[in-house]
Amino acid sequence: MNTLGQPKQHVPIFVGSTYEDMIDYRSAVKEALHRLEAIVRGMEYFGSKPGSPKEECLKSVRSCRVYIGIFAMRYGSIDAETGKSMTHLEYEEACKLKLPCLIYLIDEQKQPVLPKFVETGDSAERLKGLKEELKKKFMVSFFTTPDDLAKRITQDLPPILQQSGVSVSTEALTPAPEETTMLLKKFKARPRKHADKEVIIDLEVQGDPQPLGSDECSSFRLSLGDAIERRVKCDALGNYPQLIAVGDMADWLEGVPNGTKAKVKIRLLFGQSTELHYDEDNQPYSTPVISTGFRLVGVLEGEKEVEPAKTA
Predict the structure, then answer these.
(1) pLDDT tens digits for range 64-80
(2) Which CATH number fits domain 174-302: 1.20.58, 2.40.50, 2.40.30, 2.30.30?
(3) Is the model more confident about 136 or about 312?
(4) CA dist list (Å): 30 to 12, 40, 99, 148, 150
(5) Above 70 in pLDDT, residue 123?
(6) Residue that wins the pLDDT comparison between 261 and 34
(7) What's the pTM value of the predicted model, to 2 decimals?
(8) What angle do CA 269, 274, 275 make, to 5 degrees?
């Protein structure tokens, strides 16, 4: 995380999740955070201590500067006093402390989960409610494999740390150009399969911001009237593609002047809608329409740096 000649800055980061079902995921995240020279705190490190498990969990959250929440298909062990799971309480403590939060939800459509690790009954309903809250409060990221989760955190964390005054070298964290090129080729051929994956690219902003059309907003499930698009120049994406943004990222994209160069993180978008037609007898029929796009989710380097919306 430190640049050459600078002292290392070990930042304590709390990793919250259920445990048994997430052992492999937590191990991958821990290795990624150690490579970033972060101090990892979580349930593995509590050991034998005098306080109750809840007291130790919340104390550990209070000692950290960043919270990473990982949520799969288990709500977790319930605290008898509050009726909430320990993972839920850790998240609420991080919010109470106003810690920067990165939130990750397992992709229920793409990642298989063993039945023994899927909650049912009341716990399943509580987990569903918690996930709905997370999706409303944060720009969450959806993960599949342990490696996929670790890569997402490796990309998402540096901008958060930079906002806290920790010096981070983004060069070492940027995927090799051939990796980005290969993923974009795969996305072009099979957009549904590779949708929601994220890459880091260099671009130059061009043209004027325009409102994103109603069809695209509906297809990508974005807020009509807030989502915008703007032309950019980027070798990796081809000549002058349109970059889509909402919220804080839209504020940045519409505010920077033409010619602004930046290193950004984008999310690959896929959507499907229908188009109405009429045959020779004036009978209506519909055909499927596929939409693809690139959504701005973080600005890593460039004019008027903006913190990515907390997730990713």
Answers:
(1) 999 999 999 999 999 99
(2) 2.40.50
(3) 136
(4) 12, 7, 19, 13, 8
(5) yes
(6) 261
(7) 0.61
(8) 120
Q: State the span(s) of the chain assigned CATH 2.40.50.
A: 174-302
CATH 3.40.50.10140 is the classification of domain 12-163: yes
What is the location of CATH 3.40.50.10140 in the chain? 12-163
**Higher per-residue confidence, 1 vs 50:** 50
